[in-house]
Model the fold of this input.
Amino acid sequence: MTNKNILIISTEGWDHVFVSKHHYAQALSKMDNRVFFLNPNTGKKKIRRISPTLTVINNTQVRGIRFLPKIFCQLIFLFELWRIERVLNVKLDIIWTFDPSRFFDLGLLKSKVKIFHLVDWNQNFQRNTLAKTADLCLTTSDYLCEELKNFNVNTFNIGHGCNFPIKKNEIKTTRKKNIQVGYVGNLDISYIDWALLRKLFNDHQDKTFNLVGPISSQTIHKNGLDEFENCHTKGRVSSAEISSILQDFDILILAYKANEYAKQLANPHKVLEYLASGNVIVSTYTAEYEKHPELIEMTKTQEEFLNRFELVAKNLSIYNSSENREKRISFAQGNSYEKKIDEVDELLKKIM
Done:
């Protein structure tokens, strides 16, 4: 997958905290491709050059297309993509879309490679139609893979990619006296098990809990976070800072309502970022890592989570030994975005 003109269609804009869409765009642009990153509908007609091989574009698309007959949808999408090509003065080779709400019926695009990449279970707009008309469907969990295979046999679970595998000689070894526990991610999402976290904060007042990521005052007050002196919220940070921040902690946690949102939480993207730090992870259930018990201290109940956390905290020298750190970091390195792109390239060669 080199020397191609690639359109990435994203559900999050370029100024969003970087997630998989942004990282794939960056990695592809460094592999002798010309990448064009299409922001969500913004109403602004603007082109922004990020690098000589990476361009961010805004595009205003007609709304309500899904209510039109199929042939009209396809013709409108064909026209929209032609207009993008004309503005950019390129001929696109690959359409790589993460957004099932736009350009969801690509049946008339015979001359372009069409990839549908579904990363979240809750992205359930027109994904069945998009899956049918794509050449290749990619997912991040077996749940999603089984769903899309009903509409396209060329569907494969390739998991998530990791943007910043840390080299072993970059691991921080100086630690603070009291144990530092970290969570990094959006703290306003509905999946977080705040009852479990409050119990954790209360049971371990000798440890410092650092919550890093977007959080509203409503979330803080609703969950009584200001009642705990050992709990600190850090707010939003840039993607570039996350790697260094994760290394500042001794234990990383994932505390989700796993039973209620099992399919959505089957493979959280942050797990690979956590693993890249080398630090031990105590987590609620996440299906995709059940086959890797050596990487995550995964639990299935609140009581089990609390007990496992206490065990880990008392035996940090074992859980964060050089050997265990290397296992986690090596796994993250094996899932770099560059390696994922090579995997996609091989899949395309087999099916095209």
Q: What stands out?
A: The first strand starts at residue 5 and ends at 9.
